[in-house]
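PT: before anyone asks, these are the final sequences, not the draft ones from last week. 971 residues across everything. Please model them as a single complex and drop the result in this thread when it's through.
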Amino acid sequence: MATPETLVTGWDSLDTDEMIVNMGPQHPATHGVLRLELRTDGEVVKAARPHIGYLHRCFEKHAENVDYPGVIPYTDRMDYVAAMGNSLGYALAVEKLCGIEVSPYVATIRVVMAELQRIASHCVAVGTYGMDIGAFTPFLHLLRDREKILDLFEWTCGARLLYNYNWIGGVSHDLPDGFVRACRDFLREFDPITFPELIELLIGNKIFIKRTAAVGVCPEELAISYDLTGPNLRGAGVRSDLRKDAPYCGYEAYAFEVPVGTGEYGPVGSCFDRNWVRVLEMRESSKILHQTLDRLEKMERADVHEKVPKRMKPPKGEVYGRSEAPRGQLGYYVVSDGGINPYRVKVKSPCFTAMSVFHHLARGMMIADIIALIGSLDIVLGEIDR
Amino acid sequence: MRQWLRDVWEGLFTVLVGMRITWRHLFTSSVTLQYPEVKWQLPPRSRMRLFMKYEDCIGCGQCVRACPVQCIYLKTEKRPATEPAIWATTGQPIKLDVTLFDIDMSLCCYCNLCAYPCPTECLYMTTEYEFATTDLGEHLYHFAKKDARFLTEDPKKKAEPPAPDDGGRAPSTPPASPAGASG
Amino acid sequence: MDLALRLLLELAPALGRAPAWVQAALAAFVPALVCFTFVALGPIVYVYAERKIAGFMQDRLGPMRVGPYGLLQTIADSVKLLFKEAIFPRGVDRRLFLLAPLVVNVGAFLPFVVVPWGGRLQPVDLNVGVFYVIAVSSLATVGLIMAGWASNNKYSLFGAMRSAAQIVSYEIPAVMILLVPVMIVGSLSLQDIVSAQAGGLPNWFLFRFFPLMPVAFVVFFTAGLAECNRTPFDIPEAESELVAGFHTEYSGFFFAMFFMAEYTEMFVISAVTSVLFLGGYFAPLPELQTLGPVPLGWLWLLAKAWLLVFVMMWLRWTLPRLRVDQLMHVAWKVLLPVALALVVVLGGLILWPATAWGFPWDRFVGWPITLVLVFFLLKVMVRALRWSRRRAHELATIGLER
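LR: through. Structure below.
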């Protein structure tokens, strides 16, 4: 494993054959403003150094200057592709701090929204990955389904991308009448049509398999030592999912599996495995959704604002609350000094740790494979830079 | 050799399967909406431009405190005792004169945190989203009116409160139902 | 050429009084000009068609605003590109930079000189037509390398080198397969090759020596796809790779010229493939060859070429991109052995006295073998398709009660 020293000294002494290639901040395939400095020998990359920080918007500083409910719009804007998951972790953390226990109705709504958001986020992840590899069409098919999910969100809370939905002690809007039926309509089209088509068109394609199956192999020990979480870790073969290991919001009541990479077409932990885990997670989310919708039909409606405090002044203390966001384990470390503004909110961003393994995996690859690697790690710069 | 043959067969076959799917999609209907000829009907809870009904504002400042980006500017003065007593349509008495109530929509992050604590529900987000301008100053909306007609009788006492009429200065949007109505 | 001369003399009798060299020059020049115009207007249609087809395949509409149903989109784009500033980055080799698009276009347009659109509707009927096509289509490679080198940009050079390697590698299987129709006919002239396919659908070379000729067709078409730098072989101009490859530094009109060259090259490959395998300007049924006194041959060739262009676009929007080394693997380890095997086997079959011209191999031995093989192939394909659909459906609904 390369230590920082060898990387740093390696840059200054450049062989005559090598050149430094910049995949600059503006690039169609880097999923945001990310600068990759690659030292290449012809087509093969010898060393890679990512530069982040182009999207830093001082989230943690803002969190110190607004009150507890006011932090939630800011959390949405970190991982803007999967905003429901962000606010969920924060709400769970502060609820733990204040000792608030939400009703089962609210917990079920939260699970519905989180799983819908997981499907939508993986649509983007898998779609853009296909687009990076060169298949333009599955991206648009998946985006069409994502639009249906965003329509459901807009109907419920009024916004399509940044929802401010999971509040401390509840959710911002109750589900509208007919939501369960609309959600089932969506799943009725997604399960038998979009999902199999995606597998046939993109995942099963021999060219796609050849491009991703032996590339960017992150074995189990490496994944654990670099603290990867989420689909990146599960792609390496580790069966670790917060929804099973440390359930929240009533996840223990739902029956679903945790897909892991099995190395069907190449070594375990390749780009194909990580992507395959995301695809299978869409199926698992759909399973969970069917179960939660059944539950919602039998439950009676409750007031979703019942436990939302009028004035948020948590007691002094600190808490770490985490949730399984579509990109991994998203954790919030909240320190309260008893005032109306948080003293400190520190975010553990799963994409940041995913980015940290990049320099290790990128050695010895070709430049075309770098694109495949970045796409398979599924990074969103908003979350890396906060 | 067998691996080679299998690779070639799988390559050809998956290509043909993929082509079959795209061929089928050639004939499915498209999902494009031809804006602006065809407009998407926004659901009633949509969070677009803010609207404030000045006649109902009691000047409590809850919205100002709730806003995470501080885009609401409020200035109030105590109403002198000589002036007639006025009420909001929801029954709260109005004790403060709101001399300035500006919302800067260019700062607003559309989170709807301001509408929730409003005691009279006079501040809410409407479905109006086509308000792009060429001058940034036009995004500062002034809701305080000089010639507003307030309710002079306590509506809780009367069976049917008279309907107040609107002034003309604030951007007039037909008041969509406040956040919380079912779709 | 004498046909052209007679047509010109009919239109302008005064020409009869011009000196002989003027008549000859005009008779050579005018058909080439007509052909060039006809072909050069093609990209306008192809760009629009590509965007619309891409749109429909992706459940969206494509261009709709400029003109009714977006028909004027390409014209608007070309006008915009014409007016764009042509940027010359610092350090470019100006002469090479300006010549490169021209050379690529020359390589794309020249093969049309020998493509026959009718019995005598051909600018020039060279008796080494096939050889000429191969030779001249390699000019595009020179243009690409010039573009990459002159750009003074290491990524453009990357792209140009990869592209040159790709085109050169794929030419070899293409040339091998080109030998097959030549062997069947015994002449390099494209007109002779088309004439040998007269008489309707079963006489087309695609349907002779079943099932070997369709394999040859697929190999040739794949090699042709790679020559045009189309997905899945479009690494040189990949949009989401490092940069746009060899034409990164070109802007405005020169970029338009590269674009035009690419679509023209697509049309060339399609037209040459139609001539070689799909019967050229002959209709599937001899009754459809003329509509009254009007010969429809050119329309049939156009239809076939457009069909193949559509297949190229279809493939582009379905398949991901191959990596450079995988590209080379396909060329040298898959297409070339298959092409060599085909040439040897087909050559043997043609030489064998009893099977000259495909008779009686096709009539007595070919069809039964073909039917058996096709039946077996269909069975395997249906089974594999059912398996893949079942697996995908399984994956989608495992554990769900409904």
